């Protein structure tokens, strides 16, 4: 009985310390996140909030355009490398060549050739459906339109009366909503890339920037690099394993 009461007492004390730890952690997170709130949102001012929306959306749409151009370029490179691998495989079959320590049979060549052909066909269809080139142009046009609204809002601060400014702010807000309806929304990674480029403004430390760049690479570039360099890495790995008699 005493042991049971002791266990309950110890558990209660531990739970109390755990609750205090969680409360302190929440307080630290609130303080840290408060520092990351953009200056335009610190005050309850619609003009400043609209100013920040225009600036951030414009930047995110430019980042979305850049991302799609990068993906378009890497997509073309991926198809080119896969096609080159397919040609090399067929040359091996025609001229009966051998690669380093690997002995490649006719069945191996036939299987690899078929696999690469299917991969190129499937990948080309998927990338064509994404239509990165058209998306890049649309995001760029959207960013330019929002940029014009942003400039109009900035000019209205010094060249209009308070009443004229209120009317103009409402007009700009309505035009901003119309622009957003015309175009596809950008992805969250584009917004995060904008924050990485303006890390001083958003209060990001070095670890958050590092993780952000890693996330951007995994989201945007990794699959293309796997298709470009993956077959070569697999080929070298099998040769090294053959040399050291692992396989």
TrEMBL record:
Tagged with keyword Transmembrane: yes
Keywords per UniProt: Membrane, Transmembrane, Transmembrane helix
Coiled coil: none
Domain SMODS and SLOG-associating 2TM effector: 44-236
Keyword Cytoplasm: no
Residues spanning the membrane: 79-97, 109-126, 224-244
Name the UniProt record assigns to this protein: SLATT domain-containing protein
Species whose genome carries this gene: Sphingobacterium anhuiense
């Amino acid at each position: 009985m005493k042991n049971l009461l002791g266990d309950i007492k110890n558990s209660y004390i531990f739970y109390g310390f755990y609750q205090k730890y969680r409360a302190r952690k929440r307080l630290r997170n609130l303080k840290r996140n408060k520092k990351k709130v953009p200056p335009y949102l610190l005050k309850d001012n619609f003009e400043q909030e609209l100013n920040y929306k225009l600036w951030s959306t414009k930047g995110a749409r430019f980042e979305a355009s850049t991302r799609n151009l990068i993906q378009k370029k890497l997509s073309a490179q991926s198809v080119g490398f896969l096609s080159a691998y397919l040609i090399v495989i067929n040359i091996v079959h025609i001229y009966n060549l051998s690669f380093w320590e690997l002995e490649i049979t006719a069945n191996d060549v036939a299987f690899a050739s078929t696999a690469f052909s299917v991969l190129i066909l499937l990948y080309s269809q998927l990338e064509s459906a994404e239509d990165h080139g058209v998306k890049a142009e649309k995001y760029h046009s959207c960013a330019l339109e929002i940029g014009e609204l942003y400039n109009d809002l900035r000019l209205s601060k010094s060249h209009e009366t308070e009443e004229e400014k209120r009317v103009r702010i409402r007009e700009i807000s309505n035009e901003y909503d119309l622009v957003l309806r015309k175009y596809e929304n950008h992805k969250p990674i584009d917004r995060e890339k904008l924050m990485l480029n303006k890390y001083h403004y958003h209060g990001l430390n070095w670890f958050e920037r590092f993780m952000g760049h890693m996330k951007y690479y995994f989201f945007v570039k990794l699959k293309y690099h796997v298709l470009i360099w993956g077959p070569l890495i697999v080929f070298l790995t099998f040769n090294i394993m053959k040399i050291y008699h692992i396989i």
